[in-house]
Amino acid sequence: MGANNMLLCQIFFCVISFITTLAQETPNNSSIGTASVSSDTQLVSASSLACAAIQLDLGSSVVEYSGSEYSATVQGPWSLFNSLDRPTCIVYPRAASHVQVAMSKIFSFGSQYAVQAGAHSAMVGWNSISDGVLISFAHMTNTSYNPLTDTVTVQPGVHWGDAIAAVEPYGVSVIGGRASDIGTGLLLGGGISFISPLYGWSADSIKEVDVVLVTGESVTANATNKFSDLFRALKGGANRFGIATRYELYAAHTGTKEDKDWFGGSIVYPESSSVALSNASARYIREVTDPKAGLIVLMQATNLTPVDANVIIYLFYKGGSLPTNIFGDFLSIPNTSTSLSPLSYYDISNLISGSGRGNGQQFGASSWTGDEATFLNGYNHFMNFTRTFETDLLAADLIISPIPRSQWTANKSRGLNAIGDPGVAYAAINFNLIYPTGVTVIPERVNAGFQLLLSQASSSPGLPLYINECDASQNVFKTYPNFSALQKTYAKYDPSRFNVRHTAGLIGL
Ligand SMILES: Cc1cc2nc3c(=O)[nH]c(=O)nc-3n(C[C@H](O)[C@H](O)[C@H](O)COP(=O)(O)OP(=O)(O)OC[C@H]3O[C@@H](n4cnc5c(N)ncnc54)[C@H](O)[C@@H]3O)c2cc1C
Ligand SMILES: *[C@@H]1O[C@H](CO)[C@@H](O)[C@H](O)[C@H]1NC(C)=O
Ligand SMILES: *[C@@H]1O[C@H](CO)[C@@H](O)[C@H](O)[C@H]1NC(C)=O
Ligand SMILES: *[C@@H]1O[C@H](CO)[C@@H](O)[C@H](O)[C@H]1NC(C)=O
Ligand SMILES: *[C@@H]1O[C@H](CO)[C@@H](O)[C@H](O)[C@H]1NC(C)=O
Ligand SMILES: *[C@@H]1O[C@H](CO)[C@@H](O)[C@H](O)[C@H]1NC(C)=O
Ligand SMILES: *[C@@H]1O[C@H](CO)[C@@H](O)[C@H](O)[C@H]1NC(C)=O
Ligand SMILES: *[C@@H]1O[C@H](CO)[C@@H](O)[C@H](O)[C@H]1NC(C)=O
Ligand SMILES: *[C@@H]1O[C@H](CO)[C@@H](O)[C@H](O)[C@H]1NC(C)=O
Ligand SMILES: *[C@@H]1O[C@H](CO)[C@@H](O)[C@H](O)[C@H]1NC(C)=O
């Protein structure tokens, strides 16, 4: 504590002198700020200066260097890899204005930074940082429903389970994730919900969003105002276009928790059913157009050494039963156990928590049209990969999420997103590798095998990848049909390319 305080005092001195010299000029190119600072004061980094300047403005309850809350945030990320970082300080905004102060100091001192909402990113460093400023939304977790506008306003720190619970009594919901522990970062990548076939991508449920740009300026973007280009870019641009501080979402009228308007649940199958399930999934993608149906297929390789595979599916229908013309294949394939019943949307959104912690995680994405050969090729390469690296991994999943045509056309009037409708039904594929507890970095040979798998199981032509479930090596933006418009929008809102140079996230912009 004492040492920290002394360091702080030293930093304050630097800050005060630098604030007076830098405050007015707001340098465009961070390396200018960093270079002049480090040549004068060898030990003081840009992030220390930014932290001290933010603390000077916002106080020590908003900016923390250590302590129990700091430690809890550091250990918060779902992926163990991201819990090993140690930010120079953590900023806990209580209001958008705090984010503005933080961002303007980060910008003027040329500090590295990261933003953390629900902490579920599986990409190394996308929600954590060492030698940089971490902005945590742990104190901005409010949810409120306005019946006059029929919208739900969420602050960025809320987890979907809590947001859905807060508005359920009004008979409404939001298009969150399929696991209750996920946070609002999901919106900025697109967002796949069990009710997305009915209501569209989660991002398309945004009516309006407040955004703090890299310079600290705050703007309100919606589909029709002068920031409509930014509005579109944010919906699929992930963390590259600014920091969202308020989301106003169109409410979905899904009923209260007593309204058991859906039927479904989960079915577990043995490994011997895998090929039949791969085929059934391909056919479902190709043929099912009824937006009342929801499905996710998880082909799991668990308890590796030796690989013990099984498949679990979650399937739902808005109605009193599972229609056999939609789910017949899945209902006739031999199963191990089933759990099916009438459910409310609230029940559905709490079936999977996804809150487990303690293991390093790695994602990879692909997109497949509904073709049996494509699915079998991907499944076989996935199993070859898991068998080759069974001693390096704790478990691995191949997760199939249908993106039916209705996911693009439902509520299209609300504005377009950055991902770009490819015009065909397809499946978003997520490979999820789970490393054993003691593993703190992705082993190079496993990563090489994983990159091979991603190329062997690559996308069908013309399909966009899903940014929220990609590997850090994948250039997702390039797969968006309107990539050039996205680049233009990025150049407009961040002309000095501060974000891509100072925060980890998707490559290629
Ligand atoms: C167990 C599990 C289940 C999942 N299930 C689904 C699912 O059903 N559907 C689906 O679509 N996806 C799903 N995902 C993927 C999920 O959408 C992404 O992991 C998402 O990015 C998580 O958001 P977060 O807020 O929890 O995480 P974070 O790691 O906090 O945020 C994710 C990224 O967004 C950035 N970010 C967050 N908030 C802001 C903000 N306000 N402004 C600017 N940048 C911000 C962060 O810096 C980070 O790069 C799942 C992931 C996991 C681990
Ligand atoms: C930033 O400044 C450095 C050093 O002066 C220079 O090499 C670099 O090209 C600049 N980058 C941009 C994007 O202007
Ligand atoms: C927080 O939510 C409550 C209701 O849930 C609402 O009355 C209040 O205005 C909200 N505050 C903010 C700052 O959004
Ligand atoms: C966008 O904001 C403007 C200005 O506040 C408002 O007039 C317009 O109705 C909004 N559009 C939508 C789609 O909410
Ligand atoms: C899966 O589909 C392939 C290609 O259509 C077919 O050859 C194979 O017999 C099917 N297998 C099962 C178990 O359904
Ligand atoms: C699961 O398997 C059991 C036993 O074979 C069978 O009776 C049941 O119909 C199956 N359930 C589903 C939903 O397919
Ligand atoms: C959005 O979709 C829902 C469900 O299909 C529908 O009830 C609602 O009317 C749609 N809203 C708009 C504005 O299209
Ligand atoms: C199986 O995976 C290993 C490890 O990546 C690789 O060397 C091998 O070529 C793969 N086999 C096939 C048939 O793809
Ligand atoms: C691409 O984006 C530009 C700018 O937003 C837009 O005018 C154009 O219609 C878009 N094209 C497609 C195919 O979506
Ligand atoms: C910042 O960069 C942009 C684009 O590179 C340039 O047009 C602008 O003049 C720069 N501003 C300053 C203050 O250097």
From TrEMBL:
* Keyword Flavoprotein assigned: yes
An example of a Pfam family matching this protein is FAD_binding_4
Q: Which domain of life is it from?
A: Eukaryota
Q: Which residues form the signal peptide?
A: 1-23
User: Entry's SUPFAM superfamilies?
Assistant: FAD-binding/transporter-associated domain-like
**Domain FAD-binding PCMH-type stretches:** 83-254
- For whether the record's keyword set contains Oxidoreductase, the answer is yes
Q: Which PROSITE patterns match?
A: FAD_PCMH
Kindly list the GO molecular function terms attached to this UniProt entry: FAD binding; oxidoreductase activity
The UniProt keywords, alphabetically, are: FAD, Flavoprotein, Oxidoreductase, Signal
Q: Which family does it belong to?
A: Belongs to the oxygen-dependent FAD-linked oxidoreductase family.
PANTHER family per record: BINDING OXIDOREDUCTASE, PUTATIVE (AFU_ORTHOLOGUE AFUA_1G17690)-RELATED, FAD-BINDING PCMH-TYPE DOMAIN-CONTAINING PROTEIN
**Entry protein name:** FAD-binding domain-containing protein
